[in-house]
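Practice problem: predict the structure.
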Amino acid sequence: LLVPKIARLCILDARISPEDLMGAMLKSWQEFAKKPSQVVVLVNSSGSMSENKLAAVQKTLRAYIESLGPKEQIALIDFDSEIRPPVLVDSTPQKRDRAMAFILNLNPEGGNRLYDAALEARNWLQNNYLERAINAVVILTDGDDSDSKLRLEQLSQELEKTGFSSEKRIAFFTVGYGNEGDFKPKVLEQIAEFNWGYYRQGDPSSIFKLMADLKLEF
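Answer:
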């Protein structure tokens, strides 16, 4: 089995808004990915996401929901010191309304279990894996973790089991929120590397290339 060339991790910076970044990613996904997709969107709603971070996440999510195509399914999971059950969404009006209610009800409070939530998202996809489809996790966070039982090294060992060299590939992407010094890109870079990804600053052209490569790798 050939090791894939690329699985790209995109971290937001001040040059592009979160909603524009997600919109570019989704547009490219729809244009290039012929297969259906099932994506777990993991949303950090902890106290560390206060001020403008969670508001930016909400804008990103609205753009995501509005751009869903007929072959796309998503599971929205928010976490702080708790990891909540997934809210299942597709492109139908009823499910879109459910997603908008999810977004509206996000509040920045509580602790942060990023590593535990990442593993739970992977496990959900394992249990609900769609054959002949793109199965992926997108994490919207500042990279902070204060309360996980799991260590980063343990998360690495688990994610390798469903990396790009496995039969049931689960892609991981992370989008970082916050100003320089206010989020942890190194942690997000490491999570990407667990599945043959790497860190780079995001812009629409890099997202476009990411989705083109993702289609080829799957």
